[in-house]
Amino acid sequence: MSLEHLDVLIVGAGLSGIGAGHHLQQDCPGKSYAILESRDAIGGTWDLFRYPGIRSDSDMYTLGYDFRPWTEAKSIADGPDILRYVRETAAEGGIDSKIRFGHRVVRAEWSTADSRWTVEATRTDSGETVRLTCGFLFTCSGYYRYDQGFTPDFAGIEDFGGRIVHPQHWTEDVEYAGKRVVVIGSGATAVTLVPALAKEAAHVTMLQRSPTYILALPGEDAIANVLRRVLPSKLAYSAARWKNVLLTMTSFQLSRRRPALMKRIIRSGVVRQLPDGYDVDTHFKPRYDPWDQRLCIVPDGDLFRSIRHGDASVVTDRIERFTETGLKLESGAELEADLIVTATGLNLQAIGGMQLVVDGEQIRLPETMGYKGMMLSGVPNFAISIGYTNASWTLKCDLTCAYVCRLLNHMDEHGFQRATPQNRDPSIESVDFIDLASGYVQRAIDQFPKQGSKAPWRLYQNYPRDILSLKLGAVDDGVMEFSRGGVAATTEPLPIAAD
């Protein structure tokens, strides 16, 4: 019995996967495709996370798709609004009809002889194994592990008499109104949760081991709202998008080149938001430079407003152990709590945890190198959609999707069946794929591919530069190797230079 065959198979129906579907329909209208989604709904991260206040830490003029303007007043949007935007995009383009829910991809095997992938998925409702074949495999599953968040091994955690919940597993029955709540953590999730919980809780304490850089930005983009009133929708959206791209790039470059100046700018913003005499240096002065870890955004300074009003407080200390009534800290202080929220991080997982096999040889991702941040050395007809770490996720994903379509059209035009990036430059050295010091990155970075020391193997985290490379640069660049049927393609990953 022959397997169902598709020209392109997309893995994941979140922000990236829906974008990939749109680009395929627009730029490769003759290609058949399907989207395999392990969950039972569209939205990915924005459907998974349900904790109070869930929102983006990127503005929607850059997190939104380049082909579908964001038209709401809010620039820093909350989770339900983003989810609705993604689902409306899928419905308007008929992309939702291409999604096969409850299909978790576990293995993909490439055959050079057949120039196709055989993809194996497990039905989440029945455990049944489903197999399909495709000419090109495009993973848009992000890099968060959905089945578990990260919680350290806290001493005495079983002694606590109240409820403990990780934000990734928040459910509607979590009660916090009128309760004493401790949120452990200081990252984007924690600074989102604290002001949201503080609206109803008796008091919320954000307990952190060390501070994080936090910026207060307006929830609405006044310039973008004016542009929408005076310009056509698409033109206004593009102008606002580029304004925010350039502002983010300026912030990042200033952080890299003048970190002391950027520290002063951020600190002065925090001081203005907090009461006179507040101990800013203890609670809001990180030990690292800006953008060594991702900056946290609080729209309209809501976290600081909760602190000013006395609804929330920050404690910088380490946990000695959990107790029956709360937490005992290394300083000797104790925090009483009815509910403890462990906003202690996420677990990362490359390519959704699937196995990759090329001509019978299992691919070890750390032995591959990322080509333009989206394909793997020695792996044919395969791409990954991963966004920026220093800017909006979607900016890079839109470019990746457009490039994949250019690549597919180039192959069709010249009669190629295989496209394989190969590193044949022995001078290229390998470095970590994600250049962030954040704990969630460092815990999993050895599971990811490497990046190279120079183009096209280096991730520059630079949107204008990637436009030149992915949108305008040559597809046949001498590094991407093309082959036709009957001509053997080199699919064995080449050795990577030592770090």
UniProtKB/TrEMBL annotation:
<dbReference type="InterPro" id="IPR020946">
    <property type="entry name" value="Flavin_mOase-like"/>
</dbReference>
<keyword id="KW-0521">NADP</keyword>
<dbReference type="InterPro" id="IPR036188">
    <property type="entry name" value="FAD/NAD-bd_sf"/>
</dbReference>
<dbReference type="GO" id="GO:0050661">
    <property type="term" value="F:NADP binding"/>
</dbReference>
<keyword id="KW-0274">FAD</keyword>
<keyword id="KW-1003">Cell membrane</keyword>
<keyword id="KW-0285">Flavoprotein</keyword>
<keyword id="KW-0503">Monooxygenase</keyword>
<protein>
    <recommendedName>
        <fullName>FAD-containing monooxygenase EthA</fullName>
    </recommendedName>
</protein>
<keyword id="KW-0560">Oxidoreductase</keyword>
<comment type="function">
    <text>Monooxygenase able to convert a wide range of ketones to the corresponding esters or lactones via a Baeyer-Villiger oxidation reaction. Can act on long-chain aliphatic ketones (2-hexanone to 2-dodecanone) and on aromatic ketones (phenylacetone and benzylacetone). Is also able to catalyze enantioselective sulfoxidation of methyl-p-tolylsulfide. In vivo, likely functions as a BVMO, but the exact nature of the physiological substrate(s) remains to be established.</text>
</comment>
<dbReference type="InterPro" id="IPR051820">
    <property type="entry name" value="FAD-binding_MO"/>
</dbReference>
<comment type="similarity">
    <text>Belongs to the FAD-binding monooxygenase family.</text>
</comment>
<dbReference type="GO" id="GO:0005886">
    <property type="term" value="C:plasma membrane"/>
</dbReference>
<dbReference type="Pfam" id="PF13450">
    <property type="entry name" value="NAD_binding_8"/>
</dbReference>
<dbReference type="GO" id="GO:0050660">
    <property type="term" value="F:flavin adenine dinucleotide binding"/>
</dbReference>
<dbReference type="GO" id="GO:0004499">
    <property type="term" value="F:N,N-dimethylaniline monooxygenase activity"/>
</dbReference>
<keyword id="KW-0472">Membrane</keyword>
<dbReference type="Pfam" id="PF00743">
    <property type="entry name" value="FMO-like"/>
</dbReference>
